[in-house]
Amino acid sequence: MELLAVPDVPEIREGDDLAAVITDRIDLRPDDVVVVASTVVSKAEGRFADLAEFPDGPRAREIAGRLESITGDEKDPRFAQAVLEESTELLMEAPFLLTETKFGHVGVNAGIDRSNVPGHDLLLLPERPSESAARIREGLPHGNPVVVTDTSGRPFRHGQAAVAVGWDGMPGNRDWRGEHDRDGRELGVTVQCVVDELAGAANLVAGEGDGGKPIVVVRDWAFGDHDGHDSVFRDVDSDFVRQALRGWEFDDA
Amino acid sequence: MELLAVPDVPEIREGDDLAAVITDRIDLRPDDVVVVASTVVSKAEGRFADLAEFPDGPRAREIAGRLESITGDEKDPRFAQAVLEESTELLMEAPFLLTETKFGHVGVNAGIDRSNVPGHDLLLLPERPSESAARIREGLPHGNPVVVTDTSGRPFRHGQAAVAVGWDGMPGNRDWRGEHDRDGRELGVTVQCVVDELAGAANLVAGEGDGGKPIVVVRDWAFGDHDGHDSVFRDVDSDFVRQALRGWEFDDA
Ligand SMILES: Nc1nc2c(ncn2[C@@H]2O[C@H](COP(=O)(O)OP(=O)(O)O)[C@@H](O)[C@H]2O)c(=O)[nH]1
Ligand SMILES: Nc1nc2c(ncn2[C@@H]2O[C@H](COP(=O)(O)OP(=O)(O)O)[C@@H](O)[C@H]2O)c(=O)[nH]1
Ligand SMILES: [Mn+2]
Ligand SMILES: [Mn+2]
Ligand SMILES: [Mn+2]
Ligand SMILES: [Mn+2]
After folding, report:
1. Residue A251: inside a domain, yes or no?
2. Out of B3, B182, B212, whose CB is closest to A182?
3. Domain hosting residue A226, numbered range
4. Do B34 and B61 share a domain, yes or no?
5. N or C: which end of chain A has fewer CB within 10 A?
6. What ipTM is given for this predicted complex?
7. What ligand 1 atom has the least distance to the C-alpha of B181?
8. What is the domain-level CATH number for residue B29?
9. What is the number of structural domains in chain A?
10. Least CA distance to A232: which residue of chain B?
11. What is the pLDDT along chain A (253 residues), one digit of tens a residue?
12. Is there a domain that residue B250 lies in?
C-alpha cells in the first residue's frame, strides 16, 4: 500500500472543481482511493462564513458566557450560534462544545475551523460530506472511491486524529462477521472502520499546518472480498457514552 | 509513504524474538517505522492464559450474572475476573466491560482477546506495551521506532479501528502548538496523535481475520521537525467522558 500526496494543489476557492484539481496532477489508477481533507471540500463548496452571519440568540449568549467564565478567554457568542446552527444535538456545553452535526458526525464545535480560512472568520464542514464525496468521484476517471476527512479529538485519548466525515464508492466499514481467525474460531472483532483508518493514514501525509497537502491517493489497497456497510455514526441508542453525557453536567466551580 | 507487510511471519510462540522475525524477512531502512499487532507481541511474551487461572470472586460473579441477564448469553465469571485483574478502573460494567488497563489504555474487556489464540482460552495484552516496543526496537538494525497496536472500539463511531497501545523511539503525539496555518494564523489543531494514525494505516494491511500479516513497515514517512510528547492516554481529570461515565448506570430494564 502506498500513499501519494497530490502535488502542487493550489489554494482552493469557491467553485473549484476538485476532481479536475486531482486529475490534472496525478494519473489515477482504477483501484486508487482518494482521500480529501474536508477543509478543501468546504472551500470548494463555499462554506466560508463570517461571524456577522450568526447573530447570537439568548442560548448562544448563555453558552458563550459560561465558557468565558470557565476558561477566562473571551468567547464570541456568534461562534456559539454558528455551532448551534450546524448541529442537531448538543452533547456537551462546557468546558467546550461537543455536538452532533446535521449529518451525524460528533465533533467539537461542529467541526467549524478557524485555521486555513483565508479572508473569512470561519469554515464550516461540508453540508453533506458523503454527497460531496460522490460529486468528486463522478469527475474521477475510474469512479474511484473518495473519503472526506476531518481532524477530530476523541474520548480516552489525547491528541487528535483524522476520521472520515463522508465517503462514496466503498462501504465505510469492513464487516468480518462470520469470518474466522487463524484457528478457525469465529472472529471477536467484527467490524473494521476502514474509512477512518484511511483517513488516519492520509493525515500522516497531509499534516495539520501549512504543508498544503490536502489530497492523498491510496494505491494498492483493496477493500477486499468482505461484506460492508455504511453506518459509521452511532445513534444515541447504541452509544452509551452519549447516554452518559446526557445526564452529566460540567462542574464550573 | 509506503506500507509493507513483513512477509511470511510464522505462528508466533512464547519466547520468539520478534526483532529477529522482522530482520530475517525484510531489510529495514534507517527511517522505517515498524508497526506490530499486540496479538503477536502478547504471544511472544507468553501472555496466553486459561480461564482456570482466574477463579472468580464475588465481584466477577456479580458482573457476569448481570451481563448474562442483559445479553441472554452465557457469561463465564472467570472472564470477568480476568478483566478485573488486568484493570485499574472499571468505566462501564454493563452492557459490556469497559476498563482502564494497568498501563493506561481504555478498552473493552481490557483488550483480552479470544481470537487468534491457539491452544489457550485467552490472550492478554502485553503487560507494558511501550516496554515491549522498546525491547523489539533494541533488536532492529537502526533502532527503528516501534508501535504496538490493538483493534479498539470507540464512542460516537461504529466499527473498530487500530490504535497504539505502546510505542518507543518516537513521540506518540506530534505537537503543532505555536506553528501556523497557511494564512499565518496560529493553529487550532495542536496535537496530532501520529501513533494512532500509524496504527490505523498499518491495520488496513494487517486486517482482522486469518490474513496473517501482523507486522507492517511504514517507509518514507517522517515524524518531522515538530515537538512531541508521549501522553496519549488521558487521565480522568482531562477526560469528561470518563467523568460522565462515573455517574452513569446502564438501565437493565
Ligand atoms: N494546497 C492546499 N492545501 C490546503 C488548503 N487548505 C488546507 N490545506 C492543507 O490541507 C491540510 C489539512 O488542513 P486542515 O486545516 O488540517 O484540514 P482539516 O483537517 O480538514 O480541517 C494541511 O496540510 C493544510 O496545509 C488549500 O486550499 N490548498
Ligand atoms: N503470521 C501470523 N499472523 C498472526 C498471528 N497472530 C495473529 N496474526 C494476524 O495478525 C493480524 C492481527 O490479528 P488480530 O487478532 O486482529 O490482532 P490485534 O488487533 O492485535 O488484537 C491478523 O492479520 C491475524 O491473522 C501469528 O501468530 N502469526
Ligand atoms: Mn477541520
Ligand atoms: Mn486537519
Ligand atoms: Mn486485540
Ligand atoms: Mn485486530
Report:
1. no
2. B212
3. 1-47+128-233
4. no
5. C
6. 0.97
7. 25
8. 3.30.1330.100
9. 2
10. B158
11. 999 999 999 999 999 999 999 999 999 999 999 999 999 999 999 999 999 999 999 999 999 999 999 999 999 999 999 999 999 999 999 999 999 999 999 999 999 998 778 889 999 999 999 999 999 999 999 999 999 999 999 999 999 999 999 999 999 999 998 899 888 888 866 899 999 999 999 999 999 988 999 999 999 999 999 999 999 999 999 899 999 999 999 998 7
12. no
Nearest to B188 among A113, A212, A244 (CB): A113
CB atoms within 10 A of CB A243: 17
In a domain, A60, yes or no: yes
Q: Which residues have a Cβ under 8 Å from the Cβ of A145 and sit 6 or more positions away? A: A33, A34, A137, A167, A168, A169, A170
Residues 185-214 of chain B with CB under 8 A from chain A are 185, 187-189, 191-194, 196-201, 203-205, 207-210, 212
The ligand with the least distance to the CA atom of A105 is 3
Q: Is A132 in the pocket of ligand 1 (CB under 6 A)?
A: no
Residue B191: its chain A contacts at CB < 8 A? 158-160
